[in-house]
Design brief:
2 domains; Spore Coat Polysaccharide Biosynthesis Protein SpsA, Chain A; 323 residues; alpha/beta
Length: 323
């Protein structure tokens, strides 16, 4: 068992809630650049759950004084919520794989349950590129027959088969997205998931494509409980006549880029403009992969913006062919 003192350096609580009855606990793992995006997710959650007491647990390795003050403003304007910031040590994950898109903060979701153990029973982990569009109550009262509740990743059939085979998982198995995880804290610790996670990363670092997500799929496999996709609707998934609770902006096309216009991005920007970070200008700069150009083209075509769609598709072909 890993010593909790090895993981946590400091803890700051903003707006303590005296009564923890019926409180919902939501977890984020972010670096200093993503604090403001996690805050937008928080504001969207508060908007659709205004009478609900919520504690947001923010795991990071550093945060500026200015950002901490802005988080405090959110709690002062929404007295039914608390924000607790946990400063983590990166010692046990320092050698884990990372790249320009994913840094060590992606592993904080694996650490968080150990820090929270003994204080709460159930927590909902969320990525910071998620927008809430509905009520959370059903998630926190549903029976959870497994360590975690998750939603299947929206990978295409061929891509999923290739990924699973590369990870040593039978190609007919499911593969889940780790951006939304409903966690039974006690079972997570009792089954020593963090140790298994660390061992998996150390033994498989060379074949992990999506790092922490791949590792969770390897060690949890069939044991997870699959939630309805309304709790992690990834933005390229077909939308049915269902009430979306969480919209997940996976991939490079994040809603905080000015030139991104896709399902939910306008709504995300509305919440950003209501946040304490609204005076920080959003940017057009982004590192797009060739498949992102194709996604933009398809989005524009569905919106009958045919000329722009063709321009983006030509960009896609040029990028794909390396011209």
């Amino acid at each position: 068992m890993i010593d909790k003192e090895m993981l946590l350096k400091k803890r700051i609580e903003l707006n303590h809630l005296d009564d923890y009855n019926n409180v919902k606990h939501i977890v984020f793992g972010v670096d200093s650049n993503y604090i403001k995006y996690a805050a937008v997710t928080m504001l969207s959650i508060v908007n659709y759950n205004q009478t609900t007491k919520i504690v947001f647990h923010v795991f990071c390795d550093e945060i500026t004084t200015e950002d901490l003050d802005k988080l405090k403003r959110i709690t002062e304007e929404n007295m039914q919520i608390s924000i607790i910031v946990y400063y983590l040590s990166n010692d046990i994950i320092l050698e884990f794989p990372q790249n320009s898109n994913w840094n060590l903060s992606i592993y904080y979701r694996a650490i968080a349950p150990y820090v929270l153990h003994g204080k709460i029973k159930r927590a909902l982990y969320l990525d910071a590129d998620i927008l809430c569009l509905g009520n959370l109550n059903d998630l926190f009262i549903m029976n959870l027959p497994s360590v975690v509740g998750v939603v299947e990743d929206g990978l295409g059939r061929k891509s999923k088969k290739k990924l699973l085979l590369g990870l040593g998982i039978p190609s007919h198995e499911n593969y889940f997205n780790s951006g939304v995880m409903l966690i039974d804290i006690d079972r997570y610790v009792e089954e020593d998931i963090l140790t298994k996670f660390i061992d998996c990363i150390n033994k498989n670092a060379d074949k992990l494509k999506m790092y922490d997500q791949d590792a969770f799929n390897i060690i949890l496999g069939k044991e997870v409980y699959y939630l309805d996709k309304i709790y992690n609707l990834q933005t390229f998934m077909p939308v049915e006549n269902k009430k979306i609770v969480f919209l997940h902006f996976i991939g490079s096309l994040k809603p905080w880029f000015l030139n991104v216009n896709r399902l939910g991005s306008d709504k995300w920007k509305e919440f950003y403009q209501k946040s304490p970070w609204c005076n920080i200008q959003l940017t057009d700069k982004q590192n797009l992969e060739f498949h992102d150009y194709r996604m933009i083209s398809k989005y524009l075509w569905r919106n009958e913006e045919y000329q722009d769609s063709i321009i983006w598709y030509l960009k896609y072909l040029k990028k794909k062919l390396g011209c």
